[in-house]
Design a protein that fits this description.
By secondary structure, this protein is an alpha+beta fold. It folds into 2 domains: 77 residues, Phosphorylase Kinase, domain 1; 248 residues, Aminoglycoside phosphotransferase (APH), C-terminal lobe (Aminoglycoside 3'-phosphotransferase, Chain: A, domain 2, Alpha-Beta Complex), CATH 3.90.1200.10. It is built from 13 helices and 9 strands. A hairpin with a 5-residue loop joins strand 7 and strand 8. Pfam families: APH.
């Protein structure tokens, strides 16, 4: 590809390209693995339909890279490569690219089948946020406005209902009713924000298992996919892990019988995250640890159904009812999760007493 060759020229690296192949399973950006004579480079095109201001991403990553270099030089932070002028974001025909050094002997997983990986991943995300405690949050810019604003998502959901055609509303009527019945989750979010029960921190916002690199012994190396790092709340990171780690079925599963909660994965991710963050989170925040799962699962159910009602303009759909079924999937996951809350509260109470008090 000519663009990739131009990037290699900008970076003054060898031009002897052995192979260019599509890399990873990301749904937002396009990513390629470029194999050179004696090194590998990751090249990525930023999706400006999602990230309206890619320069904000570049700004945040450079702020964080400088912070880690100064305060935690041993921490592996995946900073884009720069040219001789220090530029790391390249604009070719109004498309934005960046390149990373490939981390040798690293691996990622798309499917979570071992609880040890849940522990390691949660520990990596907790470690990242903990080590960023010394960074002035005001130095970071917002990369997606209102990304995890549940109050706004609920308003958009209501707006979609009012404007949807009658056929779609009839099909989705049961899910709409159930999501409205669970609006107490939205109400609790509003109270948490209003009364400052949690505070803004450096937050990843996309803590799926494939955003952590592991070594050959399945120990966490570092977190990746840093585009959504910005000021946020810990419930986003913990909640997204609960949403994506606890059930063996992902959000595309149509057979609802395959959706259930694996308690041991909850225990593993909780222990991994709190091993790093127990001294950082306030008591009020620890009280909302379990709520974070409700928060993220509920919000994703709303977002899927909103998209279905709006003719799949955001997520797209491979078949007409895909986002309807995704919403049903997440609503089922939420119901299964809420059935476990009493057990989870007992576990966390024992964990805090045993390990951290």
């Amino acid at each position: 590809m000519n663009t990739i060759n131009q990037i290699l020229t900008e970076l003054q690296v060898e031009k002897e390209v052995g192979k260019i192949e599509i890399f990873g399973n990301g749904l937002v950006n396009n990513t390629w693995l470029v194999t050179l004579n004696n090194r590998k480079i990751i090249v990525q095109r930023i999706n400006t339909n999602v990230f309206k201001h890619p320069e904000n991403i570049d700004h945040n990553i450079n702020v964080l890279a400088n912070y880690f270099k100064k305060n935690y030089p041993e921490y592996i932070f995946t900073k884009p490569l720069s040219n001789k002028y220090g530029i790391s974001l390249f604009n070719f025909k109004n498309e934005f690219y960046r390149a990373y050094e490939y981390i040798n002997n690293s691996y990622y997983y798309n499917i979570l089948e071992k609880e040890d990986l849940a522990y390691e991943a949660a520990k990596q995300f907790g470690k990242f946020t903990k080590q960023c405690e010394g960074l002035n949050i005001k130095e970071l810019k917002t990369t997606i406005k209102n990304f995890h604003n549940l109050s706004l998502r609920y308003k958009l959901f209501e707006n979609a209902i009012s404007k949807a055609d009658s056929e779609k509303k009839n099909i989705a009527n049961d899910i709409i009713r159930e999501l409205k019945e669970k609006s107490y989750i939205k109400d609790k979010y509003n109270l948490i924000i209003k009364f400052n029960k949690t505070r803004l921190r450096v937050t990843h916002h996309d803590t799926k298992i494939n955003n952590v690199l592991f070594d050959k012994h399945d120990k966490g190396i570092c977190i990746i996919d840093l585009d959504t790092i910005m000021p946020g709340y810990f419930i986003s990171d913990v909640g997204d892990m609960m949403r994506t780690y606890l059930s063996p079925a992902d959000e595309n599963e149509i057979d609802l019988e395959n959706i259930y909660i694996r308690n041991n994965y909850f225990f593993a991710l909780t222990e991994g995250y709190l091993e790093e963050m127990n001294t950082v989170l306030k008591e009020e925040e620890l009280n909302e640890f379990i709520y974070s799962g409700q928060f993220m699962i509920y919000m994703q159910a709303i977002r899927f159904l909103t998209d279905y009602l709006e003719n799949d303009i955001y997520y797209g759909a491979k078949f007409p009812l895909e986002n309807y079924y995704r919403a049903k999937n997440q609503l089922t996951l939420l119901e299964r999760y809420e059935e476990k809350i009493a057990d989870f509260k007992t576990y966390i109470k024992k964990l805090l007493v045993k390990k951290y008090i």
